[in-house]
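RECORD TYPE: protein structure
NAME: Flagellar basal body rod protein FlgB
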Amino acid sequence: MIDKLSNALQFQQQALALRAQRHEVLSGNIANADTPNYKAQDFNFAAELKRATAAQSGGGLKLATTSSGHLSTGSNNGVAPHMQYRTPSQSRMDGNTVEMDIERTQFLDNSMRYQADIQFLDDRITGMRKAMQPEQ
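PREDICTED:
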């Protein structure tokens, strides 16, 4: 039963974990907007989600279990996203590549999508809870 619940929520869990990681990256970019020679970073969310779910579903490393009763970890199995540097549209004299307009836009977009993922997960859990309750 727990395996079925875990599998049903696996995709949303991966998406939320990657959204949280992206939030940290973007907030790091914003925090270092005035740091000389800081290079803004980001990662392709869709590609990393595909990679993380493939690793979770059997394409990646798995933990060794000594009993059939052991549960899976449910995390992203240590799959770190492939970071990429942003190419600035206008270079700065101090070598910093953070463009605040782009970073704020990406941060807001990621925040809204994170909230949407939470709502999807909540709706899914609510549906499962209703399906498990007896009819009245």
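COMMENT: Strands lie at 41-42, 84-85.
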